[in-house]
Specification:
By secondary structure, the chain is of the alpha/beta class. Helix content is 59%, strand content 6%. The protein has 60 helices and 18 strands. The protein has a seven-stranded mixed beta sheet, with helices on both faces. It has a six-stranded parallel beta sheet with strand order 8-10-11-12-9-15, sandwiched between helices. α53 packs antiparallel against α54 and α55 runs antiparallel to α56. It is globular and about 125 Å long.
């Protein structure tokens, strides 16, 4: 028998002991057999000696009682046996688009995909329990699961695994097994998808290599590369694919291996699946440098797979003990040197395996201007880390490059200086060279200086090119020069120096590093292309506000703890005004220090007329090249004014827009009206003012351009009194050049590119011609310049005209297809409004645009914003527009917004005012008057004033049929509103009313489908109303089918969070509740609550409707306490907004009374029923369906309480009301007779039951007597 056969026989003889313990977690006391002689080996003998005790005492003190995971992995065969019995759960996609868990034992696993990601908050992630109880879809983390499932399906994989929900973490043994198996699970996965939630690729192109520059900096800084567990998730799988938060593919481990190597310092061989045991322990530990884990012990546990170790998990032992155990296991299984003494964090900042080969040079020096570093430097740890990663050892024999770009004053030079200091801290670095690169002459000077510093023999050559070549060759040939490592810093590279740098930068020498700073992304991109590769370039952005505040306070010597809240607020405003730019902050701090200003006095100066003087103040002691804030751009502004005044004019227009979203398309569209030549003319007449804006826009704009004032706005001069006197308008030739520029796509693109190269703007996207942004301080500096020139108001009006020109060309704000364009332009309108409040508050074009914006926000369901807009317009007044009807339009809009927000009394006031105005001016049957009447009727319906609402809507319908015809869409709208009113008024059991409403709904739906199409929003609204009618009739399945179609259509057109979408979602939840699909209903109700709270408020009727619906679900699930809290919240909210007598209030009281009854809380239940009976008797007739239901449920309660007399009285009152309302022969009346008879029979009163069923007159007398008796009892 071979050794292998003996080995297998021995292993199977351990099944009873080891496998039993492995499967059950119960240690076996069974004596283990001896190792067969034929399969003994030192390794096997050593491992088995720990698990085969000779006596019970030895057994108890030996390794045999260690957790069995450790035992099983001591012996190779048992490690295989462990894998055979391990269980892995996988997710499988179902036909309904959802996912279910499946279990797979041992190696019998199908091909699967696996997800790697960083966890969010624990409340956001989907757990094993969430997946089982059906609440997973309500969590934010479900999107990641859906993404993984969809991507796996696209790759032909039916199964996939996600760590958040495929492990039952409440089961400690299962969690231990999973962590020990994790590396194997990732290794065996067919695909590993890395979802990077902090990496955006909005400019993604089909060939993502072309757009890599847009996301690579965020990729390199991703949190995923800093987490402990993601290390094995990167190394273990064969195929690792990276995705942005928009689910755009960024590349895989193979295509991004050089980038990943630079970020993580993991050798390429390790990324290419070289066996891990071939790397030293120290080297593998270094891969985990700076990686963090949430729990301390996981710093060791996350490396189990990296070292091929299995060991028990002991949470609570701490980081140090866990690392010691890791070391011990590594020594025993691999016989490697100790690693416990070297914590991951002790690795040097620039340590690499290559460093051990370098010599230490005593002649090291730093040519960087380190004395210019301020005492208090802004924290830039992230950026320093990115530069360090980019400067890791290059795979090619060429210097590694990295470029930092950003706007002036952001701190690029300061960061580069700081980096040189850190770079020189490594003993292997020999020299740092610094060159200013604003022009070619300074570059020549820099190369000559390099030769002087190293005392090169060619330093005295008269030819400049010879000196440059000598310096380059010296850097490229370390074996000749004797220098092994160097850093060359090229500061403030300008576009004019790119060709020179391409020709003369060192091309060889893998130990050299090049760091570039520049103002623009285009230059950074150009200088980082070398040897056929694009190396890293990153944008240096202004620091966060909190960091900027800390820097400012340190610079002025003020303690943050000593500041008052007012001073803190002033400093925050100041920092935001300065755009958080380090240079501007240091400049302001220097001004304060040298002029002995306090924070309060300094902020007053900034807000007042001294702002421009402070920005122009020169700080002679500044470490920056520019000595004043305005000096950062002064030279460029002068150059533009001299060489390209029309480009400067474009900049002057853009500085009043929203700086974060300047679109090429907006400028181009706004300039369309400038194509035709025209002459200045007289003031437009009243009739001309009422035409569409396109008939007079160009004429009006040119009037402004030539004469510097706007038509119909004669009071502007007084509004702009705080500005310097206006100069005459631009000369016509200069204005014509500007019009020509903005009207030509080619010239406009060229002008924007020029502004970009000068750092006035920055390109954010190439979509539709490009989207640009501008720093706040740039905006302020240019505006200050315009103010000092006396042209501020003139350029502001040009800016308004361009934006409003683009704005008014968009289609109806009610159309969803127009919303994207509106959203892109509204930010510019709001920015212009902010400036107009100071200098031109009654600007005609802005008032017109604000009216449209308010209507747009109402259509989008952004009711609070719309309400504020209408209120502002009404405060300004309509005098500027010379249009009396526009104020009526504003009131009408405000009335509608108030209705949507549940402010019904305010809505009625405005609607009624508008109705009266229009009725007196236009007549009762004018379409505009009917519109106001119709809207007023809808508010009455919301107040449960159904009779008034129905009467008004019937009048509107008849008038429209007469004037517009039965097929007109306005007539159909009146039919729809009437049907909805009848449907709500019908309540339960009124079959005839429901049938009438259903007929009207179907009539309206047929017309709208024929005229508008099935997918039109108005058609979907009618379909939703028809489904609500079906639901009220108990036809829930038919209702759900329609609701789901409506929901899909509204999601596509309006979005998931639009109020109409949420309305349909709540309707589906209501139908699901009635159908008993409670878990699904609960998820939908919760979503509806969240969205309605965000859009309408916590006490809005729609929010409370969803709260009531969730309470209904909890009631049916016997979660009584939760249901009571929700019912009470809904009841309080409705009482406050609708009043005690509203049907919605009494409906909630009824449900709460029944809930108390089901909870056996009879005292609260009877108290609630008595309050409810009192209110309904006051407002409803005795035969109203709600009154009959109240009597019936109160009777049930009295029966449970043993109060049979009171129960009988309620049954008789219910029967009497039914006879009065429906008649004695109605089926519902017969049912109630039967209920009363059954009750009496149960009380051994069969004779009285027969008498009550046979003779209606006798029954009526008894009912009257019972009514009087109940009244007496209540009194």
């Amino acid at each position: 028998m071979t050794a292998t056969e003996l080995y297998i026989r021995f292993a199977w003889s351990l099944q009873i002991s080891v496998v039993f313990e492995r499967l059950t977690g119960v240690a076996s006391l069974h004596r283990y057999p001896k190792i067969p002689r034929g399969c003994r080996s030192p390794e096997l003998t050593k491992a088995t000696a720990r698990i085969l005790p000779l006596t019970p005492t030895q057994h108890a003190t030996s390794y045999a009682y260690r957790p069995c995971d450790s035992i099983l992995t001591e012996i190779p065969f048992l490690k295989v046996l462990s894998n055979l019995v391990s269980t892995m759960r996988l997710l499988e996609g179902n036909n309904d688009g959802k996912f279910s868990l499946t279990e797979h034992l041992g190696d019998a696993k199908p091909k699967y995909a696996i997800l790697s990601h960083t966890w969010g908050a624990m409340t956001e992630e989907v757990t094993f329990r969430d997946l089982n109880d059906g609440t997973s879809e309500a969590k934010v983390g479900y999107d990641k699961i859906r993404f993984c499932g969809e991507q796996a399906r696209r790759d032909g994989l039916q199964y996939f695994w996600v760590d958040t929900c495929c492990i039952d973490k409440a089961n400690s043994s299962e969690l231990q097994e999973a962590i020990n198996s994790m590396f194997t699970w990732y290794r065996d996965a067919t695909k590993c998808y890395v979802y990077l939630s902090d990496v955006s690729a909005i400019d993604f192109e089909e060939n993502h290599q072309l757009s890599r520059k847009t996301w690579l900096p965020a990729f390199a800084a991703s949190r995923w590369f800093t987490r402990g567990w993601t290390l094995q998730e990167l190394i273990a799988p064969q195929t690792v694919e990276f995705f942005s938060k928009e689910r755009c593919p960024l590349g895989d481990k193979k295509s991004l291996e050089h980038v990943i190597h630079g970020i993580t310092r993991i050798p390429l061989d390790a990324l290419r699946a070289r066996p891990l045991h071939e790397f030293s322990v120290d080297e593998r530990m270094s891969w985990a440098k700076d990686r963090k884990t949430t729990r301390q012990e996981d710093a060791a546990y996350c490396l189990l797979g990296i070292f091929d170790i299995h060991m028990p998990l002991i949470y609570g032992e701490g980081r140090k003990k866990a690392l010691i155990r890791l070391q011990k296991e590594a020594q025993e299984t691999q016989n490697l040197p100790s690693v416990s003494s070297k914590d991951v964090r002790t690795v040097s900042l620039f340590a690499t395996s290559e460093n051990r080969l370098f010599k230490t040079f005593t002649s090291s020096f730093n040519d960087a201007p380190v004395d210019l570093l301020p005492i208090h430097f802004m924290e830039r740890e992230r950026e320093l880390g990115l530069v360090r990663n980019a400067h890791q050892v290059s795979e090619e024999n060429a210097p590694a490059r990295c470029a930092i770009w950003g706007i002036p004053g952001v701190g690029k030079t300061q960061l580069a200086i700081l980096y040189t200091k850190i770079f020189l801290e490594d003993a292997t670095v020999s020299a740092v060279f610094w060159m200013s690169c604003t022009n070619v002459e300074k570059l020549h000077q820099g190369f000559s200086k390099l030769l002087n510093l190293i005392d090169h023999p060619d330093q005295f050559k008269p030819e400049q090119n010879a000196r440059v070549v000598a310096a380059r060759r010296w850097l490229e040939q370390p074996e000749v020069s004797g220098i092994l490592r160097w850093l060359l810093v090229l500061d403030n590279v300008d576009i004019s120096t790119i060709d020179f740098l391409r020709e003369n930068l060192p091309r060889q020498g893998k130990h050299g590093r090049i760091l570039i700073t520049t103002r623009t992304e285009a230059v950074a991109h150009a200088v980082c292309k070398a040897s056929g590769r694009l190396q890293l370039f990153l944008e240096l952005e202004p620091p966060a506000v909190e960091n900027a505040i800390t820097f400012f306070l340190k610079s002025v010597g003020v303690s943050e703890n000593s500041m008052s809240s007012v001073s803190r607020h002033q400093v925050t405003d100041l920092i935001k005004f300065l755009g958080c730019l380090p240079f501007a902050i240091e400049h302001a701090a220097s001004f304060m220090t040298q002029s002995s200003q306090t924070i309060d006095s300094f902020t007053r100066l900034y807000r007042g007329n001294e702002k421009s003087r402070i920005l122009n103040w020169r700080s002679l002691f500044s470490a920056y090249e520019a000595k004043s804030v305005s000096g950062m751009f002064t030279s460029h502004l002068h150059d533009l004014r001299r060489s390209n005044p029309e480009v400067l004019g474009l900049l002057n227009i853009l500085v009043f827009w929203d700086p974060d979203g300047i679109e090429f398309e907006t400028i181009k569209t706004g300039a369309l009206s400038l194509h035709s030549p025209f002459e200045p003319t007289k003031e437009p007449s009243k009739s001309e003012q009422n035409r569409h804006w396109t008939q007079w826009f160009a004429l009006s704009l040119m009037r402004i351009l030539y004469f510097g004032f706007a038509f119909r706005n004669k009071n502007t001069a007084t509004d702009a009194s705080n500005l310097k006197p206006e100069k005459t308008a631009l000369p016509s030739t200069e204005m014509e050049s500007l019009i020509k520029l903005v009207s030509s796509e080619v010239q406009l693109q060229s002008a924007l590119q020029q502004l970009q190269m000068l750092s006035f703007i920055k390109r954010r996207s190439a979509h539709e011609g490009g989207e640009y942004c501008m720093h706040d301080l740039t905006q302020t500096l240019v505006q200050v310049a315009l103010e000092s020139e006396g042209t501020y108001l003139q350029w502001f009006r040009y800016s308004v005209r361009i934006v409003c020109g683009a704005f008014h060309q968009i289609e109806d704000p009610a159309l969803p297809e127009s919303w994207r364009r509106y959203e892109g332009l509204i930010s510019h309108i709001l920015s212009l409004i902010k400036y107009s409040e100071l200098v031109d508050p009654k600007n005609v074009d802005l008032l017109t645009a604000r009216t449209t914006i308010a209507a747009y926000w109402c259509n989008r369901g952004r009711y609070y914003e719309a309400r504020e807009a209408y209120q502002q317009l009404l405060r300004i007044g309509s005098n500027a527009l010379h249009d009396a009807d526009i104020e009526t339009q504003w009131k009408l809009g405000l009335a509608e917004v108030n209705w949507h927000l549940g402010k019904l009394d305010e809505s009625i006031l405005f609607y009624d005012e508008v109705r009266q105005i229009r009725e007196s001016r236009l007549g009762a049957d004018h379409p505009d008057t009917l519109h106001a009447v119709e809207k007023l009727a809808l508010v009455y319906r919301s107040q449960a004033r159904f009779a008034e609402a129905r009467s008004m809507l019937e009048h509107v319908l008849e008038s429209r049929k007469t004037s517009l015809g039965p097929d007109h869409l306005d007539t159909i709208q009146a039919i729809e509103y009437l049907a909805m009113t009848i449907n709500e008024y019908a309540e339960a059991e009124n079959a005839e009313a429901y049938a009438e409403a259903e007929s009207l709904h179907k009539q309206a739906l047929a017309h709208r489908e024929a005229q508008l199409g099935t997918g039109h929003l108005d058609t979907l609204w009618t379909a939703d109303s028809l489904a609500t009618n079906y639901r009220a009739q108990g036809r829930h399945l038919e209702a759900v089918e329609i609701y789901e179609r409506v929901l899909e259509g509204r999601k596509i057109q309006l979005g998931e969070d639009h109020p109409q979408t949420i309305w349909t979602l709540a309707n589906i939840a209501s139908a699901y509740t009635s159908l008993g699909r409670l878990n699904e209903a609960a998820v939908m109700w919760k979503q509806a609550i969240v969205f309605n709270e965000q859009r309408r408020g916590h006490n809005h009727s729609q929010t409370l409707f969803a709260v009531e619906g969730l309470a209904d679900v909890y009631h049916q699930q016997s979660r009584f306490e939760e249901a009571i809290n929700l019912y009470n919240r809904a009841l309080r909210g409705n009482e406050e907004s609708l009043g005690n007598g509203h049907p919605s209030v009494m409906r909630k009281m009824h449900k709460l009374a029944n809930l108390y009854r089901d909870q056996k809380d009879f005292i609260n239940s009877i108290a609630m029923f008595e309050r409810l009976l009192e209110r309904r008797k006051t407002r409803l007739g005795s035969g109203h369906p709600d009154m009959l239901r109240t009597y019936h449920d109160a009777a049930i309660l009295y029966t449970l309480m043993g109060k049979h007399i009171e129960a009988e009285q309620c049954y008789r009152l219910e029967l009497a009301g039914s006879i009065e309302e429906l008649g004695s022969l109605h089926p519902e009346t017969k049912k109630r007779e039967l209920k009363l008879a059954t009750f009496l029979r149960d009380q051994e009163l069969q004779a009285e039951a027969a008498e009550g069923g046979a003779q209606g007159a006798v029954a009526n007398e008894e009912v009257t007597s019972a009514q009087q008796s109940l009244n007496d009892r209540q009194e």
